Amino acid sequence: MPSPVIEPPVIERARAKVNLCLHVTGRRADGYHLLDSLVAFAEIGDELRAEPAETPSLAIGGPFAAGLDAGPDNLVLRAAALMGGGAAFTLAKNLPVASGIGGGSADAAAALRALARLRGQRLPAPEAVLGLGADVPVCLAGVPTRMSGIGEVLAPVRLPPFAMVLVNPGVGVATGAVFSRLARRDNPPLGAIPDFTASGDLFAWLATRRNDLEAPAAEVAPVIGGVIAALGASPGCALARMSGSGATVFGLFETLGAAEAAAARLRIAEPDWWVASAPAAGPASAGL
Ligand SMILES: C[C@@](CO)(OP(=O)(O)O)[C@H](O)COP(=O)(O)OP(=O)(O)OC[C@H]1O[C@@H](n2ccc(N)nc2=O)[C@H](O)[C@@H]1O
Ligand SMILES: Nc1ncnc2c1ncn2[C@@H]1O[C@H](COP(=O)(O)OP(=O)(O)O)[C@@H](O)[C@H]1O
């Protein structure tokens, strides 16, 4: 059954996507890489507002609006075009661009959700949105997920509550450039993902996994190594690792208080870095 049409305007969050681990397990004939990744979302992100309009339009504000083109190539308008749709969009760009936390993909997913709500339509299938970006299907799902294939094979995963600190040193990293520097493309998959009951179990399991894109990204942007070291040395940080193709690094914490304290220290030590703290998205983290 299609959902009822929602009265405009509609507002959708575009939450930051975090690859808690990411193994590159192969490469397809078309050059795209096969991944095996455990993906979570943070309660921080862009915000997209949509109202019905004859002609599609996009206005961008927020701390990372500068340098982001609001023309037809923007993923918000490309997503709207895919759904055949006119809407007037306003995007608050709160996440750094080209930073491994899927900001553009999350915006595209938010546009698809907004249009579906405005029109009472179903959301498109993962395969139908993959052309917008390999991360768009998982951002459309918006829940903790094991992502494989090149990003279109999705299996929801239940995660315990935890908190994150996200740090971006202000360098954009092009995803394709990172993949092309990989030393190996035949790494083992993640294996079975246990049913974690406590965040400590999740953190211990993650410590035995990797992000295979971290080393090639650090070649492109050597500052990434320094960000991992600084975050990893923060009191209460159980694990510090790069997300996606970088350069954003995440730190994992048992409590939001510990994450906020680490973020406050890093903001003082490194005033030029973008630093955010947030619970992992989902009902389990609501009471952290
Ligand atoms: C690496 C990941 C992990 O979640 O995250 P980000 O760093 O983008 O956040 C994603 O796979 C990125 O997804 P997305 O950013 O949507 O990628 P796309 O625009 O589809 O692809 C950009 C380029 O990355 C390479 N690419 C991307 C995905 C993939 N599975 N294999 C690849 O080889 C290709 O060279 C492609 O031309
Ligand atoms: N709404 C958008 N937000 C961010 N980037 C966008 C958007 N639309 C198009 N792009 C382009 O998509 C590219 C990847 O952006 P993004 O999804 O933020 O990267 P990542 O997935 O690595 O975090 C950028 O180089 C940017 O120019």
Automatic annotation (TrEMBL):
It holds the Pfam family GHMP_kinases_C. Keywords: ATP-binding, Isoprene biosynthesis, Kinase, Nucleotide-binding, Transferase. Residues 208-268 form the GHMP kinase C-terminal domain. Its EC number is 2.7.1.148. The active site is at residues 17, 135. It catalyses: 4-CDP-2-C-methyl-D-erythritol + ATP = 4-CDP-2-C-methyl-D-erythritol 2-phosphate + ADP + H(+). Gene3D superfamilies: 3.30.230.10, GHMP kinase, C-terminal domain. GO terms for molecular function: 4-(cytidine 5'-diphospho)-2-C-methyl-D-erythritol kinase activity; ATP binding. One of its GO terms (biological process) is terpenoid biosynthetic process. Pathway: Isoprenoid biosynthesis; isopentenyl diphosphate biosynthesis via DXP pathway; isopentenyl diphosphate from 1-deoxy-D-xylulose 5-phosphate: step 3/6. ATP binds at residues 96-106. InterPro entries: GHMP_kinase_C_dom, GHMP_kinase_C_sf, GHMP_kinase_N_dom, IspE, Ribosomal_Su5_D2-typ_SF, Ribsml_uS5_D2-typ_fold_subgr. It comes from the Bacteria. Residues 74-140 form the GHMP kinase N-terminal domain. Belongs to the GHMP kinase family. IspE subfamily. Catalyzes the phosphorylation of the position 2 hydroxy group of 4-diphosphocytidyl-2C-methyl-D-erythritol. This is 4-diphosphocytidyl-2-C-methyl-D-erythritol kinase. It comes from Amaricoccus solimangrovi.
